[in-house]
Amino acid sequence: MLATSREAIRMYEQRFSLRAAVLWIRTLHGESSQYNRLPEYEFIGEDVTGRGAYVVELRKKGIRWLRGEVPWEKTRPKMRPAAEIIDDWRERWYQPRLERNGPPEWDPEMYRVHARLEGK
Q1: Ordered mean pLDDT values, 10 residues apiece, the chain (120 residues)
Q2: CA dist 79 to 1, 8, 15, 46, 67, Å?
Q3: Residue 62 and residue 59: Cα distance in Å, rounded?
Q4: Terminus-to-terminus CA distance in the chain, angstroms?
Q5: Counting Cβ atoms within 10 Å, is residue 19 exposed (0-12), middle (13-18) or buried (19+)?
Q6: Three-point CA angle 47, 33, 20, nearest 5°
Q7: Which of 3, 33, 55, 91 is surrounded by the fewest CB atoms within 10 Å?
Q8: What is the spatial distance between Cα 32 and Cα 45, in angstroms, rounded to a whole number?
């Protein structure tokens, strides 16, 4: 989700000197409930292996620009700030699960690099 944020797209455009109009996302198992809940993610189909594909239009008229129907100057950014995306995620996904399941139980030692390297 943060890949579609205003900040991430600007960094990408500056780093690679490219114009970002759309973001294509592949899923492992066809249509995904993970992306179906996000209104800006549009399911466009599956390939012969059953992997799904979604498109996110990062700029208004972005797809039309890719087709050569409008000049770049006619497109307008649609990206949201990262903070807004994080707030939506926290409110729509994290908070309901936290209330339903309680705080996650995990062992921080499991994520220490040295412990994994030593086989602990």
Answers
A1: 89 90 87 79 90 90 93 91 90 88 78 64
A2: 11, 9, 18, 26, 20
A3: 5
A4: 34
A5: middle
A6: 65
A7: 33
A8: 11
DSSP the chain: -GGGBHHHHHHHHHHHT----EEEEE-SSSS-HHHHT-TTEEEEEE-TTS-EEEEEESEETHHHHHTTSS-GGG-EE-PBPHHHHHHHHIIIIIHHHHHHH-SPP--GGGG-HHHHHTT-
Q: Which token pair is 24?
A: 């294509």
Find tokens 């109009």 and name the residue: 21
84's tokens: 């807004």
